[in-house]
């Protein structure tokens, strides 16, 4: 009789034996074929791959003045597989002047895969970055005692002057998101974080090189592998020439001391930004070296927000500078003619609605309305466009959207596309906006304040300056840009294409006349002393507190070279700060210097402080 129990045991034992053999085969396959741990270990014993970092491109102003350059620095690198259990930690900490707690923290940050997703114990990891020459020389004397630690030479940014921080930006260590986005970067690498350092990162960074070094059985470097046949040399980054005029930028920052706001100047013939001032600002030289993180935290927590670039991020009511765009629209649409006159008896009065105005002659047509900055004239213009032209537009909604289309064509309501990160689009309302806000029941009277640059209209200082450039060109503009030239590359065609507005060429001639009249005897009459035929328009933007002082202008009237926008928060009348600052900026650029009288005026403005209290901005 057959013993079935014995047969079953034999099958079980045989199955277990086969399973063990299969497990061993799978494990051997994973170790020898699928896993590269042993290959990495062998390679790390025989080779050391040393990254050769490229020098980052330097940055100059439009006249060749050096603004940003590179300075040598040293990083301490560690291969964890070589360093473990073989290090005199006390002597190591003394050599780098760090505490044991800091040492432990740095080692933990290296091995924590959440903080360092690309970690490998066989490859170099950054332990400490940006040692100075002095710190490096102290460490180098004892480096032979610290197995697994190496020095890697690189360059760090240096900013020559305390100006243009928002334009230049800064460089800092890459984040995990940066590494995930672009495989060029490894932990410990540096990347542009703001300004042109960010927007032109790929041009500035260059290409890394690699040196493969051969090691003996004791880990000592024996020289280049295959005499350097497999090495690659770094390619330096491309140099940038900015459109910024350094002297103009320095003057602008000087004039905005102790004030909050912005100055933007543009060359109308090219769209090049000549200066971009955001106040308060900070010294870009603070954002260098191992103290960068500490300084960045201090600046980010500052109640006055010095890191905030108000020139492209600040959203402001443009005030009466916006009346120029209204005059262009009303003329082009046939709502008015150059001779059309509206009455203004210290403001706009209609059906119980009152929009105030200062005293001046009445009635008056467009040119003197711009010169005197008459609120009543432009309120009547918008009322007739939205409310009394049903035969032309069919509905208030169509009229409103036609108005919106003119504003968008002038560069409002959307990003202009400047080559800096963080630009805001502003706000230009359309019919759908008001239908939603007023449930479909609204008219030109409801939205009358937009005709004088108040209400829902919000622009950036860059957009206000671009309005000036567009008027100076009599109907077109180039996308504003702060980089004039990238070494070895043509300028992006985005910045060389003319962009025409919907307004007619003829309408611009009348608006220019109004702005020139303003400079000769109107609200901008302080510009009358200059010999370069400036044209200007003031703005006094209403605010919960003291009004904002605004100016937009250009010069000369014919063949213009510069368009300027000035915005001083809580500065009062446009003529108080906006006009004198705008005039000084134009004089500096056109003449290359200030006259003695203008220098005295600049010093006075520089030392004038506006009290903002302690309210968070």
What does it look like?
- By secondary structure, this protein is of the alpha+beta class.
- 37% of the residues lie in helices and 18% in strands.
- It has 23 helices and 20 strands.
- The strands form 6 sheets. Strands 2, 3, 4, 5, 10 and 16 form a 6-stranded mixed beta sheet that branches. The protein has a 5-stranded antiparallel beta sheet with strand order 12-11-20-19-18, sandwiched between helices. A 3-stranded antiparallel beta sheet has the order 1-8-9.
- Strand 11 and strand 12 (272-279) form a beta hairpin.
- Residues 37-42 have low confidence and may be disordered.
**What is the subunit organization of this protein?**
single chain
The end-to-end distance, rounded to whole angstroms, is 99 Å
Question: Total number of helical segments?
Answer: 23
| Overall strand count | 20
- Coarse structural class: alpha+beta
The radius of gyration over CA amounts to: 33 Å
β-sheet strand percentage: 15-25%
> Low-confidence parts, pLDDT < 50 over ≥5 residues?
37-42
Largest beta-sheet details? 6 strands, mixed
Helix percent reads: 25-40%
Give the CA-based shape.
Answer: elongated
The overall pLDDT average reads 90
Question: Any chance you could write out the topology, listing elements then pairs?
Answer:
Blueprint: H1 4-34, H2 37-46, E1 47-52, E2 59-60, E3 66-78, H3 80-83, H4 89-96, H5 100-111, E4 125-131, H6 133-142, E5 149-159, H7 165-168, E6 171-173, H8 176-181, E7 190-192, H9 195-199, H10 201-205, E8 209-215, E9 221-224, E10 240-242, H11 246-255, E11 261-267, E12 272-279, H12 292-301, H13 310-313, H14 323-332, E13 347-350, E14 353-356, H15 366-372, H16 375-387, H17 390-393, H18 396-409, H19 431-438, H20 461-472, E15 476-477, E16 483-486, E17 499-500, H21 505-521, E18 535-541, E19 548-555, E20 562-568, H22 578-591, H23 596-607
Parallel strand pairs: 2-10
Antiparallel strand pairs: 1-8, 2-3, 3-4, 3-5, 6-7, 8-9, 10-16, 11-12, 11-20, 13-14, 15-17, 18-19, 19-20
Helix pairs in contact: 11-22, 14-16, 14-21, 15-21
């Amino acid at each position: 009789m057959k013993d079935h129990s014995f047969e079953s045991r034999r099958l079980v034992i045989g199955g277990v034996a086969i399973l063990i053999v299969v497990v061993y085969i799978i494990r051997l396959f994973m170790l020898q074929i699928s896993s590269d741990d042993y290959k990495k270990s062998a390679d790390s014993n025989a080779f050391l791959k040393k990254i050769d970092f490229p020098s980052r491109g330097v940055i100059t102003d439009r006249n060749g003045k050096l603004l940003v350059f590179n300075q040598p620095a040293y990083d301490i690198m560690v291969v964890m597989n070589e360093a473990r259990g073989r290090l005199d930690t006390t002597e190591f900490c003394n050599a780098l002047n760090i505490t044991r707690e800091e040492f432990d923290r740095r080692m933990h940050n290296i091995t924590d895969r959440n903080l360092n997703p690309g970690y490998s114990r066989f490859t170099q990891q950054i332990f400490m970055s940006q040692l100075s020459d002095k710190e490096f020389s102290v460490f180098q004397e004892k480096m032979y005692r610290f197995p697994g630690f190496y020095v890697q030479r690189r360059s760090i940014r240096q900013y020559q002057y305390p100006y243009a921080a928002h334009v230049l930006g800064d460089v800092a260590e890459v984040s995990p998101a940066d590494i995930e986005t672009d495989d060029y970067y490894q932990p410990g690498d540096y990347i542009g974080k703001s300004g042109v350092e960010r927007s032109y990162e790929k041009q500035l960074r260059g290409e890394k090189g690699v040196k493969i070094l051969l090691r003996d059985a004791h880990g000592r470097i024996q020289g280049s592998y295959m005499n350097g046949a497999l090495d690659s040399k770094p390619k330096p980054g491309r140099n940038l020439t900015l459109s910024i005029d350094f002297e103009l930028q320095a003057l602008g920052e000087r004039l905005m001391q102790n004030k909050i706001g912005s100055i933007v100047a543009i060359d109308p013939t090219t769209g090049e930004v000549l200066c971009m001032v955001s106040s308060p600002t900070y010294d870009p030289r603070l954002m260098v070296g191992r103290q960068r993180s500490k300084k960045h935290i201090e600046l980010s927590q500052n109640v006055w927000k010095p890191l905030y670039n108000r020139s492209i991020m600040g959203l402001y009511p443009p005030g009466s500078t916006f009346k120029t765009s209204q005059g262009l629209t009303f003329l082009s649409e046939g709502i008015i003619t150059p001779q059309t006159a509206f009455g203004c008896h210290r403001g706009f009065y209609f059906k119980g609605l009152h929009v105030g105005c200062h005293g001046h002659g009445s009635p008056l047509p467009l040119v003197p309305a711009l010169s005197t900055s008459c609120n009543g004239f432009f309120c009547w213009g918008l009322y007739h466009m939205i409310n009394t032209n049903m035969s032309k537009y069919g509905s208030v909604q169509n009229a409103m959207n036609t108005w919106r289309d003119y504003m968008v064509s002038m560069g409002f309501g959307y990003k202009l596309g400047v080559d800096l990160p963080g630009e805001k689009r502003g706000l230009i309302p359309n019919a759908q906006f008001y239908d939603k806000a007023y449930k479909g029941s609204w008219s030109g009277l409801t939205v009358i304040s937009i005709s004088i640059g108040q209400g829902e209209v919000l622009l950036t200082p860059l957009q206000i300056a671009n309005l000036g450039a567009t008027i100076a060109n009599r109907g077109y503009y180039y996308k504003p840009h702060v980089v004039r030239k990238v070494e070895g590359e043509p300028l992006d065609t985005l910045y060389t294409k003319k962009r025409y507005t919907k307004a007619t060429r003829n309408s611009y001639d009348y608006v220019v006349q109004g702005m020139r009249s303003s400079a000769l005897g109107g609200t901008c009459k302080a510009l009358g002393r200059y010999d370069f035929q400036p044209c200007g328009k003031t703005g006094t933007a209403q605010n919960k507190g003291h009004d904002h002082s605004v100016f937009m202008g250009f010069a000369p009237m014919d063949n213009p070279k510069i368009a300027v926008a000035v915005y001083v928060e809580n500065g009062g009348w446009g003529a108080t700060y906006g006009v004198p600052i705008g005039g000084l900026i134009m004089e500096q650029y056109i003449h290359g210097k200030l006259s003695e009288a203008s220098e005295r005026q600049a010093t006075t403005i520089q030392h004038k402080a506006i009290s903002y209290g302690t309210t968070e901005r």
